[in-house]
Each structure stands twice: as structure tokens, then as C-alpha cells.
Design a protein that fits this description.
By secondary structure, this protein is α/β, with parallel strands linked by helices. The protein has ten helices and 18 strands. The chain has helices at 38-44, 87-90, 131-135, 137-153, 170-182, 194-204, 232-241, 262-267, 280-291, 309-317; strands at 2-8, 11-16, 26-35, 55-56, 60-67, 74-77, 80-81, 101-102, 114-118, 122-124, 162-166, 186-190, 207-209, 222-227, 242-250, 271-274, 301-305, 325-329.
């Protein structure tokens, strides 16, 4: 089968790969569309020691089950394959399973014509769901999971809040879109890429600005900040912007570690929350929300053939695309 293989830093190659070899309890899925995630770009840049080349990346996918339980069903997947019996799995928090593996990391991923994964990780799609929307289920579930955590910590409901989202990639934009759907009073979006800023203004009706040029909500001014980048400067900016008693939600994973202003965190009683991926319930809820239009019309998503995958990675690397999400179609 054809697959896009990460072979070395800043190199992905379309080539013939063996057909998936499903194990006991696995299904094989014919991939209809698969998204390029920020973590795929992190691996592409050689910054993720967990993703060792040669490796088929890709974990945001939609397709049809070719073999195994549920043959013929249109599905997306939870790329995290959990053990099912640890304390976190039995709590429904399988994203925290210490025994988890992941397609596109320890197992071949979805940048291919076909992929094998655990039948237990399959998420059935709503009847008639559009393929473009279906392939966004995984990043949309990340946004939904993060905002659900934040909502429980906020002193007032989201419609009463001013919110700053840092980062106009897929997670940041999907978060902003969901905030608008939930009725947030005012949503700011910080993004350095001018093409993405314009797309965010057009698609999400947010106040998008370039943080390097100033502007934005100012210090101590918003009840909720979502850092969808996770770099040292964005963490600093997030904590500066949040009001006393507010919530700083950390989603991005660009930098491994950095200093933050612990004095403000303490004296201003800021709640700092880390949000990692999603649980299975979030994926199911995100699929329904996408199908029902909670994330808008998705006109900001770009689709390209899998054969043009190397160019897509290079365009994202150089900031040549306005799209916060590029889907590859095998």
C-alpha cells in the first residue's frame, strides 16, 4: 500500500509499505482522510524522541472498517490504545493510562491507505457525517475536553467570560469556535502567522492579533486563558493575561519545561490546569458536535492528496498555508 513515511528530520517520503498486520482484537481501516497534527510536525522537526523514524505518522483519521468487528462501518478512532483495566481506565480517564500505546507513535499511523488499530479504540460516526468533519474528531475532542476541565474551575459560566486563546492552529481555532458556540462574551486569539489570523477572524469571529506587535486583551484582564502552543513565551504571556481568581489552561506541548511566575499564580489564586488529549466520551461527544455544526462550517480546512503530503509538511514548516488544518486524502 502507499504510505507517507517519516524517514528523518524534515523528511517524509511517499513509498510502498507492507499491508497492516492486525493482531487479535484489531480492525483494519480504509483511510478516507487524515489530518496533520502539531505533534506530527513536532516529530517532523526531529523534536519528539517517542516517534522514531522510519514511522508512518498520523492519528487524526476517518475511514471505513475493512476487516474485524464492525466491518463496513464508517468510523474515526481514539489513537490512544489503553489497557482497559488500570485505575484510570476504569474511571473513564483512559488518556492517563500508564500502559497506553498510540498509532502514529508506537504503532504505524494513518498517513497510509490502510491502518490497523484496536477494535476497542473505534468510534462510530453519526449517520451521514461528512468526511472532513469526521477527520477533525480527534482535535475537536481535545478542545472539548480542555474546555470541560476549565468550565468546572471557572467561578462564573463561560458566557460571562472574556477569553484569550494563544495559538491559531487547529486546537486553538477549534477551541475558539467552541467558545463562540457556547456564547463566550469576548474571545481574543493570539497568532503570529498573518494568514491564520485572517482565517480566524473570518471563520470564528474572534479578535485575532499578532502578539509580537502588541495589542490583545492586556494584563490581568481575562477570566480564562488557553495556551494552545505551550512554549516558554506563551506560558509567560498566558499567566500575565489571566485575572486574579481566573483559570490558565495549558494544552500545547511545544517546550518541555520553562519557568512561570509562581508568585502571581499564588498571590492571585490563579488555577493552573493541564489538559492532555481526551477520553473516549470526549471523542464521541466531539463527533456529534461536529456533525451538528457546533464548530462551524469548517471552511478553514484544506484538503490535499496523500501523494502531496511531503509538500504539505514543508508548507506548514514554512508558514505558507493559511489552513489551521491540512487533511490528506489517500
Amino acid at each position: 500500500m502507499k504510505a507517507l513515511v517519516y524517514t528523518a528530520p524534515r523528511e517524509v517520503v511517499l513509498r510502498e509499505e507492507p499491508e497492516p498486520a492486525p493482531g487479535a482484537g484489531d480492525v483494519v481501516i480504509q483511510v478516507d482522510a487524515v489530518g496533520i497534527c502539531g505533534s506530527d510536525m513536532h516529530a517532523y522537526h526531529g523534536h519528539d524522541p517517542r516517534r522514531v523514524p522510519p514511522l508512518i505518522l498520523g492519528h487524526e483519521l476517518a475511514g471505513e472498517i475493512l476487516s474485524g468487528p464492525g466491518k463496513g462501518r464508517r468510523v474515526t478512532v481514539n489513537p490512544i490504545i489503553s489497557c482497559g483495566h488500570c485505575e484510570y481506565c476504569v474511571q473513564g480517564r483512559n488518556n492517563l493510562c500508564a500502559n497506553r500505546t498510540m498509532i502514529g507513535m508506537q504503532r504505524p499511523g494513518g498517513f497510509a491507505e490502510r491502518v490497523a488499530t484496536a477494535a476497542s479504540a473505534v468510534i462510530e460516526l453519526p449517520e451521514g457525517m461528512d468526511t472532513r468533519a469526521a477527520a477533525l474528531t480527534e482535535p475537536a475532542a481535545t478542545a472539548l475536553h480542555a474546555l470541560a476541565l476549565a468550565s468546572r474551575a471557572l467561578q462564573r459560566p463561560v458566557p460571562e467570560c472574556r477569553v484569550l486563546v494563544i495559538g491559531g492552529g487547529a486546537i486553538g481555532l477549534l477551541t475558539a469556535l467552541l467558545l463562540r458556540h457556547w456564547g463566550a462574551r469576548q474571545v481574543f486569539l493570539a497568532e503570529t502567522n498573518a494568514l491564520r489570523r485572517e482565517a480566524a477572524k473570518r471563520e470564528a469571529d474572534v479578535e485575532a492579533f499578532d502578539p509580537l506587535a502588541g495589542g490583545g486583551p492586556g494584563e490581568n484582564s481575562v477570566e480564562l486563558v488557553i495556551d494552545a502552543v505551550g512554549a516558554a513565551p506563551t506560558r509567560k504571556a498566558a499567566l500575565a493575561a489571566v485575572k486574579p481568581g481566573g483559570v490558565m489552561l495549558h494544552v500545547g506541548l511545544q517546550d518541555w519545561a520553562s519557568e512561570i511566575d509562581m508568585r502571581k499564580l499564588t498571590l492571585a489564586e490563579v488555577t493552573l490546569i493541564g489538559a492532555y488529549t481526551y477520553a473516549t466520551a470526549d471523542l464521541r461527544a466531539a463527533a456529534v458536535a461536529l456533525h451538528e455544526g457546533a464548530f462551524g462550517k469548517l471552511g478553514w480546512v484544506e484538503e490535499r492528496p496523500l501523494a502531496e503530503g511531503a509538500r504539505a509538511f514543508d508548507d506548514l514548516h514554512h508558514g505558507r498555508s493559511a489552513a489551521a488544518k491540512i487533511l490528506l486524502r489517500p
